[in-house]
Amino acid sequence: MAIAFGQRRSVSKVVAVIQNFNSGVSQQEIIAATGLSERSVKAALKHLELSGAIVAASVISDLRRKMFYIGGEKNGNK
Question: Which of 7, 10, 37, 49 has the CA that lies 20 to 30 A from 1?
Answer without folding.
Answer: 37
